[in-house]
Structure formats: structure tokens, C-alpha cells
Design brief:
It is a single chain. By secondary structure, this protein is an all-alpha fold. It has one domain. The protein is 90% helix and 0% strand. The chain starts with a helix and ends with a helix.
């Protein structure tokens, strides 16, 4: 009798345990959908991070290339300014104050451009595009002013 009572009590207990421990197929499907959604979100986040890294590397490579090119232009400007000053001294010509101030202003602008170029940190694409456009504009203005000085020098 004791054994049958044990079985009689154990069967409902085990049945309740089994029924509460099992998920229905709808619950399983819902769990799998949630897992897939989470995996898609993680994948999208990883793709965005990878794209941002690639963009950053491309910006830095473009900046390095542009920096080398711009440094060469700045060096050429420095050489031209030195040549103008040397020509004025060799010929025994006396530089008038205005002409000397123009040359000094060009030299200062050239140094400022070098400092701006060295100080720039290529982080964002929008910043890079804006910086490059402004820097090119300033370099072109300096080149035009340099040509204007040499034309005035030859007169």
C-alpha cells in the first residue's frame, strides 16, 4: 500500500514537472525569431563599424598623400621666396618697404599653411572635404600672389 501511494503521488508530480518544463512549439519559434533578430542587429552593428574603419583608413591614406603633395608645393614656395630675396640682394637693388612687406606676408602665409597642414587630423570625411577645399583655395591664392610678386619684380 505504501508503494502504491508513492506512485500515486509521484505520477502527478512528474507530470506537472514535465508539462511546465517543456515549451510549446509557438514559444520555441518565438525564441528563435528573437535570436535571429538579435543576430541581425549584431551583424548590422559590425558592418557599420567595419565601414567606419574602412572610411577612416581611406581618409588617412588620402590625407597622407595630400600632405606629401602639399608639402612639396609649400617647399617650392619657400624656395621661390628665398630666390626672390636673393635676387633682390644680388642685383644691388634696394627693396622698397611695400615690396618687402609683401614678400614677408607671403612667407608668413606659407608657414601658416604648413602649420595648418601638419595640425590637421583626418577623422571625418566631411571635415576632410572641407579642409581640403579651403586649403587648396588658400594654396592657389598664395600661388597667384607669388606669381604676381615675381611679375612685379621683373618690371
Amino acid at each position: 500500500m505504501k508503494n502504491s501511494l508513492k506512485y500515486f503521488l509521484a505520477v502527478p508530480f512528474l507530470t506537472g514537472l514535465i508539462l511546465t518544463g517543456c515549451q510549446t512549439s509557438a514559444e520555441k519559434v518565438q525564441d528563435k525569431r528573437e535570436n535571429v533578430t538579435e543576430a541581425k542587429q549584431e551583424l548590422n552593428e559590425e558592418k557599420a563599424e567595419a565601414y567606419a574603419e574602412q572610411q577612416q583608413e581611406a581618409n588617412e591614406a588620402a590625407y597622407k598623400s595630400y600632405k606629401i603633395e602639399s608639402d612639396a608645393r609649400i617647399d617650392a614656395n619657400e624656395t621661390m621666396i628665398s630666390d626672390i630675396k636673393a635676387d633682390m640682394r644680388k642685383a644691388g637693388k634696394k627693396m622698397d618697404k611695400e615690396y618687402e612687406q609683401q614678400i614677408d606676408a607671403l612667407e608668413k602665409k606659407n608657414k601658416d599653411l604648413r602649420q595648418r597642414l601638419n595640425a590637421y587630423n583626418a577623422r571625418k570625411q566631411n571635415d576632410w572635404d572641407s579642409f581640403k577645399r579651403e586649403f587648396d583655395h588658400d594654396m592657389n591664392e598664395l600661388g597667384t600672389a607669388m606669381n604676381g610678386i615675381t611679375v612685379n619684380n621683373k618690371k
